[in-house]
Amino acid sequence: MVKSTLDKQVSSRLGQDDVRYTAGRREVVFALSEADGPRSAAELSEDLGPSVPLSSLYRTLAVLEASDILTPHFSSPGVTRYELAEWLNGHHHHLVCVACGQVEDVETDDEVEQRLQAIVSDITGRSSFIESNHALEIEGKCQNCQ
Amino acid sequence: MVKSTLDKQVSSRLGQDDVRYTAGRREVVFALSEADGPRSAAELSEDLGPSVPLSSLYRTLAVLEASDILTPHFSSPGVTRYELAEWLNGHHHHLVCVACGQVEDVETDDEVEQRLQAIVSDITGRSSFIESNHALEIEGKCQNCQ
DNA sequence: ATAATAATGAGAACCATAATCATTTAGGCA
DNA sequence: TGCCTAAATGATTATGGTTCTCATTATTAT
């Protein structure tokens, strides 16, 4: 995604909530748009350096999540990773390395995604659970850890 | 699963690791075998009462995970839930309620599971990632929270 | 029985995250 | 342009889930 396009979408969405799109928040959104998977506060802090202090970073993540710019992701104990929400980043799934904990995005083409959605409907169809989303997490070993 | 069968399988598996299957550990395994989804330490502690103190409970969970009796599961911020490992509990997927955080198991029949495995293979086939397992997490609202 | 080893439990320590609060910054308006 | 008000920031402190420590207790092997 082009940076300026993303910035416009985020800015507009935040505007609806009367939330300002400040420099620090832009940095966080940009760093996440460059990442190839969800990032924790600690990982982002490393990427960003001292220009965004941890306390501000945590608050920024919470603010951006509340406005549906970011989605939290849980795959390792005790740490929350964030990624751009689906409407910004596209629907995708995750490869979770059981060795190093890194999470990588994978895209699926429409045909595969349709088959997956059919499976989800098959599963929830019989229950009283109302589906809003699904996530296919594939665990294994990434190239580095094999 | 019959209690005695489960106990035998767990006991035998722990024996291979020279780990004792003590009363407290039996209580935890039993509580998880009765649960209809992954349970956190806090939830288990509520189920078990004061007979298994928290510090012992956490250690028991770690020990049982190390011997592949339990599998950790991450779906809400900052809390790890455990369930019996797949070889004891069967392969299944999860319905995660976005409102209350509860996680419920769902079984899939073989035909559906085959279709899902085919999708996973389609996705990882093109990459250098080596799959060991997959998890389909369906988010939405449980009956209580609708 | 006894020695050796593992398990237990109470409490302290740890670490990721959230809350506090004084200060700074930014947008609305004269 | 310069105030005024509300929002954002950042250093610090608090919180809560989890792990560690260590003295005590229980279990296994000889």
Quick overview of this protein structure:
The structure is a homodimer of 146-residue chains. Helices cover 46% and strands 25% of the residues of chain A. The first copy, chain A, contains 6 helices and 6 strands.
Verbal overview:
The structure is a homodimer of 146-residue chains. The first copy, chain A, has 146 residues and is α+β, with helices and mostly antiparallel strands. Helix content of chain A is 46%, strand content 25%. Chain A contains 6 helices and 6 strands. In chain A, strands 1-3-2 form a 3-stranded antiparallel β-sheet. In chain A, strands 5-4-6 form a 3-stranded mixed β-sheet, with helices on one face. In chain A, β2 (70-76) and β3 form a beta hairpin. In chain A, α1 packs across α2 (23-34). The radius of gyration of chain A is 17 Å and the shape is globular. The relative contact order of chain A is 0.13. The mean pLDDT of chain A is 93. Chain A binds chain B through residues 72, 74-78, 80, 93, 95, 97-98, 104, 106, 108, 112, 115-116, 118-120, 122-124, 127-143, 146, and chain B through 72, 74-78, 80, 93, 95, 97-98, 104, 106, 108, 112, 115-116, 118-120, 122-124, 127-143, 146. β6 (130-141) of chain A pairs antiparallel with β6 of chain B, so a sheet runs across the interface. The first copy, chain A, binds a DNA duplex (30 and 30 nucleotides) through α4.
